[in-house]
Prior knowledge:
Blueprint: H1 6-19, H2 25-39, H3 52-71, H4 81-87, H5 90-102, H6 126-138, H7 154-182, H8 187-193
Helix pairs in contact: 1-5, 2-3, 6-7
Amino acid sequence: xxxxxxxxxxxxxxxxxxxxxxxxxxxxxxxxxxxxxxxxxxxxxxxxxxxxxxxxxxxxxxxxxxxxxxxxxxxxxxxxxxxxxxxxxxxxxxxxxxxxxxxxxxxxxxxxxxxxxxxxxxxxxxxxxxxxxxxxxxxxxxxxxxxxxxxxxxxxxxxxxxxxxxxxxxxxxxxxxxxxxxxxxxxxxxxxxxxxxxxx
Length: 200
């Protein structure tokens, strides 16, 4: 089920990461989130000279604080969102951000950084593009009979449309990265997305 709020998107992907790693709410809260929030000036810094007992107390307190957010008994602080996403592994952060943007009908385009001087390099995410395309192919049940019509299952059609859109956005992001990194012009892409793509 798609997230209905940014809170659901961020917490859902965080929970998914917890289920597939050795990380827990307590460990995430104390070891990653609290220091990052403190560095951003959003919470008081943790004590740097904690004893073992103080560490366990502080870790438990952060676990309880986050559990209240996960359980819905405390609100998710909106000002924490960007810092929280930066604490997640990249694949989970990207998925959560994509879901947050989708709530506002904003395309999830990865626009390379622009600078007056040519960029030395731009990261490739070709593997991510192939994964998105694979998910589109996996969702292509409505195409199996060679046509689309009103008898196609609406749930399957919606899934195919969503996965297709994600694949197109990943392709546009990769084309922008190629153009920015190599200095090659791609006028058709600039016309399509309305964003100038830097070139030599």
